[in-house]
Design a protein that fits this description.
There is one protein chain. This protein is of the alpha/beta class and 341 residues long. The chain folds into two domains: 4-142 and 289-317 and 325-334, Response regulator (Rossmann fold, 3-Layer(aba) Sandwich), CATH 3.40.50.2300; 150-287, Rossmann fold (3-Layer(aba) Sandwich). Helices cover 46% and strands 20% of the residues. A seven-stranded parallel β-sheet has the order 1-12-6-5-4-2-3, with helices on both faces. Strands 8-7-9-10-11-13 form a six-stranded mixed β-sheet, sandwiched between helices. Strand 9, helix 8 and strand 10 form a beta-alpha-beta unit. The longest helix has 19 residues, at 150-168. The chain is elongated.
């Protein structure tokens, strides 16, 4: 694996795609996922073959898939998309199937840093180029690994929070953090580290609580308890989508809009609606860039198939969304609607 590269590519590449291409890629995705239940099949058309294994079929991975399909069209790659559905045994079975299909490249979001290695190493030993995305394995044989820069995700929103505290709160604030370190220590810890690092040097800032909650219902309860325990709380920052939704919901439920400001991480349709809401509870989030993750993963696979040099580990910074730029939020929501309908 080559050295890590932080790719500062445009965070808005998806905005340059036409609506017709959005619909075409989305339709192809539906057909491909329907085919999974019947066993993946490649047309025998002579083009290089790349097999994709999604971790699950949610919005994030659908957007990864869309980026892969757009890149596959540009690279003239024959692509088949399958899903492990969060089941390691299913992932292993799919990898074995793709080996039997004699694919040229295998693009996988591995479920286990160690448990995914044996099957993928078997594919590698059959001269199949391995590309991991979103997650990774503890092995050197993948030709590329495409991930979000988790520290940058936290730092990006943290910089917005810092500016808000300095300009709107006279440099003083009581801040609570809703994290997910118990679920995923490494990425969760990196997001918190990035956020807290952005606030360093603000002597008037006190972090009054750090609590774990990553699903929205749980995070709502945690945030409501924080609001009760800290009636003078100024800001809640959440490290993932569920925490962000839960924190915003808690502030709304307790009537603290205008009193407590919420900032968060990850972008979704629901978070976009919170950002656009008139109650001004949620101020900003930094979202991952699944389209770019998917596109770069497929581009890396295509380059490896051609025998070209491939960047080893690529870390993508996130994309900042703030309520001060509602047009960008609406445009992204339109994009999500096109891809996922």
């Amino acid at each position: 694996m080559k050295d890590t590269v932080t790719r500062r590519m445009s965070a808005n590449r998806w905005r340059r795609m036409s609506a017709n291409r959005w619909r075409g890629a989305a339709a192809a995705a539906v057909i491909a996922m329907a085919a999974v239940g019947c066993g993946p099949q490649f047309p025998d058309d002579g083009r290089p073959r790349a097999a994709v294994v999604l971790m699950q079929e949610d919005q994030f991975f659908r957007l990864c898939e869309y980026g892969m399909r757009a890149a596959a069209e540009d690279e003239d790659i024959n692509v088949m998309v399958t899903s492990s559905r969060n089941d390691l045994n299913q992932e292993i079975s799919l990898v074995d199937t793709h080996i039997a299909n004699q694919v040229d490249a295998l693009i996988v979001a591995p479920l286990s840093i160690s448990g995914s290695i044996p099957a993928l190493e078997s594919a590698y030993n059959q001269d199949i180029h391995i590309v991991t995305y979103d997650t990774f394995i503890d092995a050197a044989f993948p030709v590329a690994s495409i991930q979000s820069d988790q520290t940058a995700l936290g730092r990006s929103t943290g910089e917005v929070v810092r500016e808000y505290i300095e300009n709107e709160l006279s440099g003083e604030a009581r801040v609570a953090i809703i994290q997910y370190i118990a679920l995923a220590p490494e990425p969760g810890g990196m997001r918190v580290e990035g956020f807290e690092g952005a606030l360093e040097g603000l002597d008037g800032v006190e972090i009054v609580a750090r609590q774990d909650a990553w699903l929205a219902p749980e995070a709502t309860n945690v945030a409501e308890n924080l609001l009760t325990a800290h009636p003078d709380l100024d800001i809640i920052w959440a490290a993932n989508e569920g925490g962000t939704v839960g924190a915003a919901t808690a502030v709304r439920n307790t009537g603290r809009a205008g009193d407590v400001r919420v900032f968060g991480t990850d972008m979704s349709g629901q978070i976009g609606e919170f950002l656009l809401a008139d109650d001004a509870i949620l101020h900003a989030v930094t979202g991952q860039r699944p389209y770019d993750i998917g596109r770069l993963a497929m581009e890396s696979a295509a380059a490896a198939i051609r025998g070209e040099e491939v960047e080893g580990e690529v870390l993508l910074p996130g994309e900042l969304f703030t309520r001060d730029e509602p047009d960008a939020i609406r445009e992204y929501l339109d994009f999500i609607d096109e891809v996922t309908r």
